[in-house]
Write a structure and sequence with these properties.
There is one protein chain. The chain is an alpha+beta fold. The protein is built from eight helices and 15 strands. The chain has two domains: about 120 residues, 2-Layer Sandwich (D-amino Acid Aminotransferase, Chain A, domain 1); about 160 residues, Alpha-Beta Barrel (D-amino Acid Aminotransferase, Chain A, domain 2), CATH 3.20.10.10. Strands 7, 8, 9, 10, 11, 12, 13, 14 and 15 form a nine-stranded mixed β-sheet that branches. Strands 2-1-6-5-3-4 form a six-stranded antiparallel β-sheet. It binds N-(5'-phosphopyridoxyl)-D-alanine. The site of N-(5'-phosphopyridoxyl)-D-alanine has 15 residues, from α6 and β13.
């Protein structure tokens, strides 16, 4: 973790940052969060992440004590001396500390924290091989478009993936299809058409997903916004996941079924490279030989 963290308007030493055990984030999961990926200390798509944070806050009727510009300013301030190749900024806002009762307390001040961690990035060997995934039933509700800290189904799903030796768990929802990963959006290529789920209460509107859709448009790739069934997904020629930290990452195995020829496909690689070009352009950095 960076040396200082943000707690309710102040930058203080991480060891001195404490939150009340009565905090509603701790008691009820009554809060929201964001994860922003940073390259050589530059936050990628910062405005989009802050915009989503504001949307998540509105989604749980939480009035944040800071506006868009202040939040952007604080994130940049926190990144001032960060030189790591990769870093992640974590922001969390909860309804704050109060006597425990389910409904909103009348007099409560939100708790807002931010900190920065060094990021690892995806190893080249993993990028070249792609990842295996498992499919698990989607036990979440219909607020998945809100980035809330209620992540128990996601935690259990990812743990099941780890125990199965896989890199991600994909949620399958009755009557809808395979909607997204435990911490990622999902894309497939079928008959030359790139598909991902539409914006819905079943998925997070991923910032990386949005970048990929913009890239696909600029490259003239046909796109379909639709959820695929398990059968459609495993018979796709390419599948990949997207997230802030994983960027565009090939999926080469789903529940024991090999996808395509078992290697990252050409569309996936083109979009992964296009994403890195976007990062270079928007963050004003150069990856050099290490671009993908
Ligand atoms: N998760 N869907 C879910 C359920 C997620 O948790 C995430 C990201 C995404 C991808 O969103 P984005 O492209 O904006 O990162 C989709 C973050 C990284 C996390 O919880 O750590």
């Amino acid at each position: 973790m960076g040396e200082s963290v943000f707690l309710n308007g102040e930058f203080i030493a991480a060891e001195q940052a404490f939150v009340s055990i009565g905090d509603r984030g701790f008691q009820f999961g009554d809060g929201i969060y964001e994860v922003i990926w940073c390259y050589q200390g530059r936050a990628f798509r910062l405005n989009e992440h802050i915009e989503r944070l504001l949307g998540s806050a509105a989604g749980i009727r939480l009035e944040l004590p800071y506006g868009r510009d202040e939040l952007v300013k604080y994130v940049k301030q926190m990144l001032t001396d960060i030189k790591w190749e990769y870093a992640s900024v974590y922001i969390q806002a909860t309804r704050g500390p109060a006597v425990r009762t389910h409904a909103f307390p009348s007099d409560v001040q939100p708790t807002v924290i931010m900190y920065v961690n060094q990021g690892q990035g995806v190893p080249t060997s993993t990028r070249e091989a792609g990842i295996a995934t498992i499919i698990v039933p989607d036990t979440r509700g219909t607020l998945c478009n809100i980035k809330s800290v209620n992540l128990l189904p996601n935690v259990l799903a990812r743990q099941a993936a780890v125990e199965a030796g896989a890199g991600e768990a994909l949620f399958e929802r009755d009557g809808i299809g395979v909607v997204e990963g435990a911490a990622s959006n999902i894309f497939a290529v079928r008959d030359g058409v790139l598909s991902t789920g539409p914006l819905s209460p079943y998925t997070l509107p991923g910032v990386t997903r949005d970048c990929v859709l913009q890239l696909a448009k600029s490259k003239g790739l046909p796109v379909a916004l639709e959820f695929l069934s398990r059968e459609e997904l495993i018979t796709s020629s390419e599948v990949f996941i997207t997230s802030t930290s994983k960027e565009v990452l090939a999926v080469t195995d789903i529940a024991g079924h090999v996808i395509g020829n078992g290697r990252p496909g050409p569309v996936t690689l083109e979009l992964a490279d296009g994403y890195r070009v976007l990062v270079e352009r928007e963050c004003g950095i150069k990856f050099g030989d290490n671009r993908c």
